[in-house]
Design goal:
The complex is a heterodimer of chains A (400) and B (554). Chain A is α/β, with parallel strands linked by helices and 400 residues long. Chain A is built from twelve helices and 15 strands. The longest helix of chain B has 20 residues, at 416-435. Classes of the chains: A alpha/beta (400), B alpha/beta (554).
Amino acid sequence: MATEVETKAKIEAGRKVITGNYAVSYGAALSRAQVISAYPITPQTTIVELLADFCAEGILDAKFIKVESEHSAMASCIGASAAGARAFTATSAQGLALMHEVLHWAAGARLPIVLAEVNRAMAPPWSIWTDQNDSLAQRDTGWLQYYCESNQETLDTVIQAYKVAERVSLPTMLVLDAFFLSHTSEAVEIPEQALVDRYLPPYRPKFKLDIDDPRAFGGITMPGEYMEFRYKMERAMEEALEVAREADLEYRERFGRGYGLVEPYMLDGAEIALVTSGTVTSTSRLVIRELRAQGVPVGLLKIRLFRPFPTPEVRRYLSGVKKIAVIDRNIGFGQGGIFAQEVKSALYNYGLNGGPRPPLFGFIAGLGGRDITPELIKEIVEYTSTHDRPEEEIIWMGVK
Amino acid sequence: MGIKEQTRPDEPVTFAVEQEMPPLAVSVGTSLANKTGSWRYLRPIYDPKKPPCNHACPAGNDIQGFIALITKKRFREAWELLRETNPFPAITGRVCHHPCELECNRRQFDEPLSIRLLERLAADEGYREGFRKPVIEKRAERVAIVGSGPAGLSCAHFLALKGYGVTVFEAEREPGGMLRLGIPAYRLPREVLDREILLIEQLGVEIKTGVQVGQDIQLEELNGYDAIFLATGLSKSRGLKIPGIEAEGILHGLDLLKSINLGEQVELGKRVAIIGGGNTAMDAARVALRLGTQPTIVYRRTRAEMPAIPDEIEAAEEEGIRFNFLAAPVEVITADGRMRGVRLVKMELGEPDESGRRRPIPVEGSEFEMEFDNLILAIGEQPDLSFLPQGTALSEGRVDGKIFAGGDVATGAGTVVEAIASGHRAAETIHRYLQGLPEPPVQEPVVVPFERINTDYFDHRPRVHGPVLAVPERIRNFDEVELGFTREQGLLEAERCFSCGTCDQCDNCITYCPDVAISRDGDDYEVNYDYCKGCGICAQECPRGVIDLVEEER
C-alpha cells in the first residue's frame, strides 16, 4: 500500500543536523510506517513526537494511536501488523519491560514490527541514562536486535530493519544509546523517498487478518505441534543472518552506506581485539588510532547485529587475535557482561574443532549512563595487555 | 490461504512433517464456525434518542438535524428542515430566547452551541439559495384566523400546507403582530419580517389588514368559515394606579414601541424612567436610548429576577442603560399637569410568590425622589377580549364549537417561539377537528443526558461568537445590532455539535467491534448476533449515546 499512497507533503531529502531520536523518526517515516502507536517515556519521547507531527502535517500517511501504556502500544502494533499494516513503536527501559509479554506475542505471531529502543538503565535506583540491560533482558523473546553507533546508522537501520523483518517474518528492535545518540545532534543524510521506496517495497504479508476469510491466529496448539512452531522461529532467526547481510549490501549499493553485521576496525595485525556495541565504539576508535600510532597492537570489532548473533563473523574476525576484551555496558547478574558471554559462546565449540580460542576479558563499564572515557578504554587495553588471562570473570571498570 | 484444510470439523488436524505447517499458528478452519454470540448476555441495540436541544425547543425544531445539514453545507435543506416546525426561522434566529442552548449538553463540556445564530444562518443562507414551494393539495374547508402575530401566522402556515383556505384578519395596517409592533428593527430588521410573512402568503394565505374583529366586523360574521382561530395576543398595557399617573409625559412601553415601529415620531425629554423588568422594558429603554435620551430602568426586584431574556438585558447593559433595582414608583411628581419626577420606595425581597420569584416588599420610610421628564410603563400586557361575549375566557385549544384559541391570548405572556408552537398545535387540532381524526398518542421521548456522551471523541473548543455592531455605532440608529455568522463561522460552530443521540455514521462501532460483527448498509447498521459477544464496546465507543445495551432474554 505504501507507495500507492500519495501523501500531501514529502520528507525533504538532504543533509540535516538532527538528533538520534529524530533520525529514528525520519527512518520510520521514510519506511512509510502505516500505524504508529507509542507511549511516551524519556529518552524515547521525541521520536514519536516528531512522527506525530509528521502525521498531523500530512507528511506521513499513518494512523497514530495514542495509548495508555507500552503494553497497549505493542498490542496495537500487533493488531495493525496482523491486519497487514507496517507498524512502528518506540520505547525505553521500564516501558520495554512492560511490553515483555506482548514482545513474545509479536515474535510468536511472526509479525515484522519495528521497535526503536532507546537504551536506558533499569530502575531502581531510578535513572534515565543509558545502559543496555533493558534491551538485553528481551534477548530471548524472538526479536532481532541491532545496536547503532551513530545517528546516520540509526536512520539507515530503521529502513533495513523493515526489510529484514518482513523477509523473515520476525519483529526487529533497533537500539540506540540514551542521550549519547538520542539527544545528540549530528549531520545525517536523509535519503530520497523514492530511493527508499525502491529499496523497501510495500509490506505484503503471507498471512493476515481478513474478514472475508476469518481465521484464528495464535490459538491453542497441542504438544504435537507447538515445538515445530518454535523450530520454525529459530530457522527464521538463522535465515535472518543471511537476509540481514544481503539487506545491508543492497543498502550500500543503493545509498552508498553499509555497516555489516559486525564491523572490524584496525583489526589487521591487532593482537588485542576490543569488542564493543553502541556509542562506546566511537570512543574506542579514537583510542585505538592513538594507541596504534604508539605501536600498541589493538583493534576493534563492533557488534551491530546482536540477534541473531553473527557467530560466523565473530569467529572469522576474532580468530586472528591473541586476546579479546569485551566492553559491556550491561550486567547479566551472576554471570557477567552479556556480550562477553555471547562471544565466549560463539568461540567455545570453535575451539574444540581446532579453531583459536583466545582468552576473553569481560569488562563492565558505563552502567547508568556513566561516561566511558578514552582514559577508561586505555585502562582496559592496558589491563588486557599486561595480563595473560583475566584475574576475574567480571572486571569492573571505574567502580568507586 | 493455502493451509492444509480440515477434512471433518470435529477432527483435529495433524501434520506429518514440519514443512506442511504454516509459519505461524493460524487456524485451519474458518473462525466463523465459532458462534461467539452464544456467550452474550447483553445485547447492543441501535436506539436513536432525542437530543436535549430538540426536546427543549417549544416548537420542536430538529436542531441536531439542521446543524448536521449545516456541517454538510446543505443550507437550504437545513432551512427547509427548520420550516417543518417553524415558519419563522430567520425571525427566531434573531430574537428567540433559545431554551435549546440552556439544555445543550455541550454546556457541561465547555460552552453550549450558538444554536440561535446557526438557525439564523440556515434561514438566511437557505433563503438565498431559493425557496422551493411545496406542492399542496387543496382542501375545500376554509379557516379564519384572528390576529397575524406569530401564533396566528404559524397556524395559517401549517393549515395552508395541509391545503386549507386560510384568511387572516389583522387590526393593524401591517401584519406581524408583536413581531412588528413590539420588536424594534435593531433586533429584527423589517425586511426579514416581511420576507418570512411573504413566504406564508405564497402558500395561498390571505392576510386582511386594518380589519379589527369586534369593531370593523363582528366575530359572528366569520361563521361562514369552517373553523376560527383566535390569536389576538396581549395588546393592552397594564396600568399603574399611583397618584399623578395621568400627568403629561407618561406613556406605555408598548405604545412607544408601536409608534417607533410604525415609523411615527415620538417626543421624549432627556431623562426617561422605564418601569419594569421584562422584554418590553428592555426594548423601550433601548429605543429611548436611540432617540437620544438617558434611560433608567427601574425594577422592583433584582437583576436575577428580571423576566426579560438574558440576551436583551446584557445588550441593554452593554449600551450603558442605567438600572435602578429594588425600587418601585409610589407617586408621580407633577407641576402644571406635567410630570417632573417620580417618588420611589426602596424594596427588599421576601418569600417566594406564586411565580417562584421572591416577593418585593416596600421598605418603610425609604422613599426618595428622582427627576425624570418621562415615565414609560412596561409592567406587563393583557389581552383585549372586548370582541368576545363578556366573561369569555380563552385557553389553548378548542374553545367552543368551531372556535379555537392559541398564542399569548390563550396562554398568557410568552415568547415568540412559544407562540409559533401554539399556532402549530392549533393547526393540528383544527385539522383533526375538521377531518374527525383522533388525538395521537403522546410518547415520552428518551432524552440523551450528558453522561451518555463519550467526550473522549470531542476537543474542547470555545463557542464561536457572532459579530455585533460596536456600541457607539448602534445607539444612534436602528441598524441591526447582531450581524450573524459568516458561513465559515457557522461551519466552525456547527462542527462543535455532539449530535446527541443521533447516529452520524461515524463508524466507531464498526471500528471497535472486536468480533467484526457490525456492518453498515447505507446509513443503517446491522449487528450480527451470531457473533456479537455482547462486550458492549460499541456502546461505550459510540460518541453520542445511540447504542444501548439491553439484557439478553433466553
